[in-house]
Amino acid sequence: MKYRIHHVTRYQYAEPVSLCHSIAHLKPIQTRTQRCLASSVRVDPWPSVSREHEDFFGNRVSYFSIQQAHKALEVTATSEVEITPLPPPEADRTPPWENVAERLYDKGDGMMTDARIFSLPSAHIPLEASATQYAAVSFTKGRPILEATRDFMGRIFREFEYDPASTTIATPIAEVMEKRRGVCQDFAHVAIAGLRGLGLPARYVSGYLETLPPPGQVKLQGADASHAWFSILLPDVGWIDFDPTNDQLSSEQYITTAIGRDFQDVTPLRGIFYGGGAHELLVAVDVNRVPEEAEAVA
Amino acid sequence: MPLADLAPPPDQPSLVDAYAPLAGCYDEMRTAEGEVRPHWQYFLDALRTLGPAGIEERWREASRLIRDNGVTYNLHGDPQGMSRSWELDLLPLMIRSEEWAELERGLIQRAELFNLILLDLYGPRDLIRLELLPAELIDGHPGYLLPCHGIEIPGGRPLVHYAADLTRLPDGRWRVIGDRTQSPPGAGYALENRVVLSRVLPSLFRDSHVHRLAGFFRSMRRTLTQIAPQRAEDARVVFLTPGPQNEAYFEHAYLANYLGYTLVQGGDLSVRDGALWLRTLGRLERIDAVLRRVDDIWCDPLELREDSFLGIPGLVQAARAGNVTLANALGSGVLEHDALMAFLPQLCQHLLGEELVLPDIPTWWCGDPASREHVLDNLDQLLVKSISGPSSQPFLAPGTMSPEARKKLAQAIQAHPSRYVAQERIQPSTAPALIGQHLEPRPTVLRTFLMAEDDGYTVMPGGLGRVTLGNESTGVSSHLGGLGKDVWVLASEPERQESLLPANEMLMTPAVVQESAVSSRVADNLFWIGRYAERAEGLVRLLRITIFKYAERSDVPLAKAASSCLRPLLEALTNQTQSFPGFVGEGSEKRLREPVPELLSLISDRNRLGSLPQTLQALGQAAYSVRDRLSGDTWRVIGNIESLQASLSEHPPAQLSQALDELDPLVTALVAFSGLSQENMTHNEGWHFLEVGRRLERGAAIASLLLSTLVPTSPEQDENMVIEAVLGITDSVITYRRRYRGGTRVGALLDLVFQDEGNPRALAYQIVMLQKLVTELPRGDLAVGRTAVEKLVMRSLTDIRLAEIDALIQVEKQSERRVALARMLVELTEQLAAISDAITGQYFRHEEQPHSLLRRTGSPTP
């Protein structure tokens, strides 16, 4: 399946901003199941400096700086990706989860060595006993890892309420655990904290989910949103993505932009600006299927 | 041992006989058999010759130098008590050249090794892939900064400078007990220790053939120029400090000055066009290299700690683009990892193909099964530390714990072994320190400093010795507290050419290559230094005259006093200090009758807005913020003012006569300060701001004084007293007497202190000076015409010049006040305030605090 993604972020400031530096993780990466065919980030006003580099995790990071006074900033990312989903392994035939934790320390297995960073606490996901205990309920002795993770994901989906008003980006995991409320980012963080507490590698995925209008209705423009979920490592296979917000494994409707240890590594757009006063933010995301015969984005 | 024992009569044993090294420790001065090590003998003999009185005298001299030079180290970084004096031991730590050469070899190897580790960890990570370093050790360490991964380091030297803390174990071998790899502090204190000691013990220093330190700092300058991306001769280097609140701010200012670099804070710098710039008045100057004392994570709120106000947004990107070099490279803090020491021998073998020359304290990382077993088996003999969590925790000594706590720790290690590291408990060597009047053995740590050079590293031949003041020998802090020691590396050959040269290290003055640029922050502080210094001086003058007049009139009945010339003076005090109600507002009648408590409060109450101590404190703080701009002499005067201020507010005078005694030296110090700023400061941009501040303040003070004293009228006898007082305050008595033998007295006075452009205490004179000064200020883009500030000054000057004294002195019948004069003075006061505002707006407009753009990921409703 091919998608064209249009992601617009617009800041409107009360006072002019004299200088602004920004970092964006908006260009989709290549994964086992995803090819990025084209991608561009347009910034308005025109930035004085604009660079791109690949970060530690292989994400494409755009840096730009605007040095002229401006009262609005618009960042438009346009990408075209192709998703070739792989059928998930049969859950009951995956190895016991304890084996995965042990294999992390296998000598000479580059994939496992590289994955060890995802088993460690990170800035936004410290070790959180309540999350570990919560996860342990699903990870019973010897349970195949995929089966245990599915169960864990399902419990988060059922037992946590989706409530954008309940948390901010600064809400610690302990509080989310206590309130049992949050948004996709919180659910991903809770899941990752629990898995890491058990010694498993788990990473944070930032991207988009294609939404479909109710049958018979036309899809509204800008109705999509950026999304976040988590993924676990299946030895010899690769990373498998789980979406606790929707209780499903990733499918061809999931588009990955960046991966990291937590939100902080892959924030879609962050920046530091001088001046500006109060600001308003507007985000519009469109994820649209590209008919097979259509031309690629110019 | 009382001091008298230090110098026994010639036929008695030497002074070290009572010096008993601690059991089980290596002592730097005495062998286990009680012999004095030969390289200490000369120094000890010299001490004996000095005698107790001589030693005492030298020690006092050293303390005085430290205080005068304002050498401070604020252990708790308390901005209120801004200066805890650095403490220096009179006895240096002495090391033989041959031994030093061996140490050097080990230190240089260690620096090379660390440099290679950094290059690998922020590049290919082979050490992790090859399992030479466990991934979780590095990736889980808060000092390993992923945003800095992949940045190419010019010249392949991320570790530009480095400091290692060493001590000697009972076997006599040196061991490394700690590493400082981000922005190693202490080299400035080492230099200052040397300056002080070589001054108080000049002949001893000269005859001991001590290796000099200057060469090390020369190579520092050379290296910093070379690592700059534009290796041209005119590469600009700045010294980045977290600011005056930092515990070691003295050192930052001192080293910046010594090396000839501009001392900057994060807010003075800005990233534009992908490069780093210093914001000076109306210009941006490109910066090529940064010698930083801001720790890694605080350096860039864009990619590192978002809540940092000490850094520069975009700095990581500027480094990534290769447009600026940082010493050290960002992320070098990972080398301060507590568990790294356990891996150094194998890393050294792998990266350099050599044995580690200088061993560490034996260290075990519990993530390794064999190490874990060893640690659990020998828990009581070890020190244990948790290395997880954002901030490093102190070492614990399980041997001293309660059985339960010990058991809990062992369980924690078993549950999460990779989060623990253990070290052997060590007995640091001891060195003699002069404690009170005794020579006592104290645990000693030697901090050594290294600097990258073209083909390797160079070691400072000396360093910073520190002795702990307590006797505890475990866990030596990485802070610089305790007692400092100079470190003398004794040249092996007994006679060297160098020893014929003057011994004073002070003589190695820096070759200032670059004129220090003035940032907005610096200009702002200098402006306020000018204002506060003048404000304080004016206030002291006014207080003195007021107290004199009060004393003269005290034989007159009190009721009369209130209506005498005292009243205008007291009112002037309140108006000038803005310390209402005072002698003007509510309850003033009572205070006018009994003015002493209010006067004493203005003289000594530090917490009172506008009081003398508060003004002096503000002066001290402004001066401290730009102390790299003030000469040693100026700083001594500031220190003097500080201590006079402290004594005023800590021991408030009980009587006015007593207060007067304290005000006299203060006037002298303040006059000295203004003299120094006139005569000893280069008349550059910064000086112009200081001078503008002074003139504005003096102008406003004269206007306020005249408003309080000459606008109201009084009976002739009193008016004479008022005139006399005003003349006294404005230092114009002699001119007045010489010039005016008749005529209206008030008119004559106004002539002299208002309109006379040749009298340095006249209002007109201040404006004339201002007019000259403001034309020298940066003009921005304005090529022709006059700046707003210039126009304002011009208007004030014209108003004064056009004023008719005869009209000004007219008294309005009804109110019995000189209304025209009042109107004129109020108008001028407002104009002066407008000039001050205009200068602030035009030159000191700091960039606003940066804000963060961040939002969380939205999520489609399920």
Short overview:
Helices cover 20% and strands 40% of the residues of chain A. Chain A is α+β, with helices and mostly antiparallel strands. Chain B has 28 helices and 19 strands.
Head-to-tail CA distance between termini of chain A: 19 Å
The biggest beta sheet of chain B is recorded as: 8 strands, mixed
Question: Would you tell me the overall average pLDDT of chain A?
Answer: 92
- Along the chain, the helix and strand elements of chain A come as EEEEEHHHHEHEHEEEEEHEE
Biggest interface reads: A-B, 63 and 40 residues
Written description of the protein model:
- The complex is a heterodimer of chains A (298) and B (862).
- Chain A has 298 residues and is α+β, with helices and mostly antiparallel strands.
- Helices cover 20% and strands 40% of the residues of chain A.
- In chain A, the strands form three sheets. In chain A, strands 1, 2, 3, 4, 5, 13 and 14 form a seven-stranded antiparallel sheet that branches. In chain A, strands 11-10-9-8-12 form a five-stranded antiparallel sheet. In chain A, strands 6-7 form a two-stranded parallel ribbon.
- In chain A, helix 3 crosses helix 6.
- The radius of gyration of chain A is 20 Å and the shape is globular.
- Among the domains of chain B are: 64 residues, 2-Layer Sandwich (Dna Ligase, domain 1); 164 residues, no CATH class; 166 residues, no CATH class.
- Chain B has 28 helices and 19 strands.
- In chain B, strands 1, 2, 3, 14, 15, 16, 17 and 18 form an eight-stranded mixed sheet that branches.
- In chain B, a hairpin with a 2-residue loop joins strand 7 and strand 8.
- In chain B, helix 26 packs antiparallel against helix 28.
- Chain B is elongated and about 100 Å long.
- The N terminus and C terminus of chain B are likely disordered.
- At the A-B interface, strand 1, strand 3, helix 2, strand 9 and strand 13 of A face helix 4, strand 6 and strand 19 of B.
- Strand 13 of chain A pairs antiparallel with strand 19 of chain B, so a sheet runs across the interface.
